[in-house]
Write a structure and sequence with these properties.
The structure is a single chain. The radius of gyration is 24 Å and the shape is elongated. It has helices at about 1-15, 30-50, 205-230, 240-245, 265-270, 290-295, 355-360; strands at about 25, 80-85, 105, 125-130, 130-140, 170, 175-180, 185, 190-195, 200-205, 255-260, 300-305, 325-330, 340, 375-380, 390. The strands form four sheets. Strands 1, 2, 3, 4, 5, 6 and 10 form a seven-stranded mixed beta sheet that branches. The chain has a four-stranded antiparallel beta sheet with strand order 11-12-14-16, covered by helices on one side. A three-stranded antiparallel beta sheet has the order 7-8-9, with no helix packed on it. With about 400 residues, it is α+β, with helices and mostly antiparallel strands. It contains seven helices and 16 strands.
């Protein structure tokens, strides 16, 4: 249901709006190709966001032209370049101005298979487009056939895609200076070459930013539902050092740390009036598949002092917001009982390799978010120095 609703919204948005500057390529082709590429891009991102088992993953390309993602050969896609699997995405077949379904290349590290896990903000995206790396997927609109492309209709990539786009590696190209004859491109060096593919990229950053927002929203809902059933109070967080080793039990007195899976310390410190389990359906629960396998190392929570675990029969019920958390810059926003932060990909200077690395907030979070004991948190657009996704309870 979630996937269907997301895709319906995406299809409607993409049909009505083509964001400028997202598509590059050859020829003075009509807006129909641009709309097909934009629709494909938005549908793929929506699929990654809504996936119930591996948020952030993408389907295999369609190598036989039936509209469905190919089944895995072992634990690999049979091909990482093929047509857009529009049936799998729940779309009507998108068509470019020549009436053809777009082509699609996928970074192997993001395929929807357990062998590719963990899939999260740090997952490798092996594709490049015009030398730019960390590309999760590329969608192409093939132009009219060039010399040697006589196999249309057919399923061979070389009969549709040109140059580097059909050579079997993970480095792709678009045309920086399309020419009006629909068959040639002028390279950045001023060389005319036979090339007319139009291409649009999905970067790892924009794909994962959308998925991180989904993850943060689900965790916020877990905190909300837990508090609603437990006198307005939140559980203790998991200790950073212990959770760095993969143990996600809550720790008494820990107001900021990773999202806990088990809540025994919360129950014990509340005179057993608070639950030791998350609400039904909450992905924060122990042994949840997608969160435990892929995302829990990247999820952090901070709880306000007044909303810490306690026996609600002995303290204010519901608790008072006398010492709550502040989320900036949000003028006029009330102070918060809890904050959820999902870390983006490691930035320059951040290491997440060793247990010691993973024990430090600063290797995941930026600015004041890396010092959560201060009670002030930052929510701002991503940049080269900040990529946290932050939501308040």
């Amino acid at each position: 249901m979630l996937l269907s609703l997301v895709l319906i919204a995406v299809v409607a948005a993409a049909v009505l709006l083509l964001r400028p500057g997202t598509a590059v390529g050859a020829g003075a082709r009509s807006g129909k190709s641009a709309r097909a590429l934009a629709l494909a891009k938005e549908a793929l991102i929506a699929r990654a966001v809504a996936d119930a088992n591996r948020p952030g993953s993408l389907p295999c390309p369609d190598a036989d032209g039936d509209g469905s993602a190919d089944l895995f050969a072992g634990n690999q896609c049979p091909s990482y370049v093929g047509r857009l699997p529009w049936r799998t995405l729940g779309l009507p077949a998108p068509r470019d101005d020549l009436g053809d379904v777009p082509w699609y290349a996928l970074a192997p590290g993001l395929r929807d298979n357990m062998a590719a896990e963990p899939i999260n903000s740090d997952s490798p995206a092996q594709l490049t487009l015009d030398g730019a790396g960390n590309i999760a997927a590329v969608v192409f609109s093939a132009g009219p056939p060039l010399a040697g492309q006589g196999g249309r209709p057919g399923n061979a990539a070389a009969d549709w895609l040109d140059g580097a786009n059909a050579d079997g590696d993970f480095n792709f190209q678009a045309c920086p200076r399309p020419l009006g004859n629909r068959t040639e491109c002028e390279t950045a060096a001023g060389v005319r070459t036979a090339f007319n593919d139009r291409a649009i990229a999905i970067s790892r950053a924009e794909l994962m930013r959308a998925v991180e927002a989904r993850v943060a929203g689900e965790v916020r809902n877990c905190l909300r539902d837990y508090a609603a059933a437990n006198g307005g109070r939140h559980p203790w967080a998991a200790d950073m050092s212990v959770s760095a080793e993969g143990l996600y039990h809550d720790n008494e007195g820990t107001l900021a740390g990773r999202l806990p899976a088990t809540l025994g310390a919360t129950r014990a410190s509340s005179a057993e009036t608070m639950s030791e389990t998350w609400p039904p359906g909450c992905p924060a629960a122990a042994d949840n598949g997608w969160l435990d396998r892929n995302w829990r190392q990247h999820i952090f929570v901070a709880v306000a002092q007044d909303f810490r675990p306690a026996d609600p029969t002995l303290v204010a019920n519901p608790p008072l917001c006398g010492a709550c958390l502040t989320l900036t810059p949000r003028p006029g926003t009330p102070t918060q009982s809890a904050v959820v932060m999902v870390a983006g990909a490691a930035l320059a200077g951040q290491s997440r390799v060793s247990v010691g690395d993973r024990s430090l907030f600063a290797n995941y979070l930026e600015g004041v978010n890396a010092t959560p004991a201060g009670g002030t948190f930052l929510d701002q657009p991503p940049s080269g120095a900040f990529n946290d996704v932050v939501v308040a309870r």
